[in-house]
Specification:
Elements lengths: L1 H18 L3 H22 L4 H7 L6 H18 L2 H14 L6 H17 L3 H12 L1
Length: about 130
């Protein structure tokens, strides 16, 4: 239970910075929470975000946090372009843990494509969108 509490504390701290428009700092904290969350999910044998939501008594719904992180990484990218690549990496990991949540999967795949556009990699962005359509 202690590991869960540490993750939750990081999520709450990240929101504090995001609400102050300190996107990079908030995202850095949230990405650290994500690393801890992945480890805890793996250790508990949890394969998707919904199962993780259900396992622990979160104050914030985890599925909201993971989607907020995706969006705020884009905001951080407007300040520091390296966050677009962090968004792509994160979204690819999140796709692997979406389970049956089709909307989350589609939104996450769209975010990957958008990030390539934000980085000026238009051909890769087009490939990502085309793969979604198919």
């Amino acid at each position: 239970m202690e590991r869960f509490a540490k993750i939750e504390a990081k999520i709450e701290e990240g929101y504090t910075y995001i609400y102050e428009n300190e996107y990079k700092k908030g995202c850095d904290i949230w990405l650290a929470a994500w690393e801890d969350a992945k480890t805890l999910m793996d250790d508990d044998g949890i394969t998707d975000i919904q199962g993780f939501d259900d396992k622990y008594p979160w104050k914030e719904i985890v599925s909201n946090y993971v989607q907020d992180l995706e969006m705020e990484l884009q905001n951080a990218g407007t300040v520091d372009k390296s966050y677009y690549q962090k968004r792509i990496t994160y979204c690819k990991e999140l796709c692997d843990r979406c389970g049956t949540d089709q909307l989350m999967r589609e939104n996450t795949r769209r975010a990957i494509a958008e990030s390539y556009y934000d980085m000026g990699e238009f051909e890769q962005g087009n490939r990502e969108f085309e793969a979604m359509i198919q």
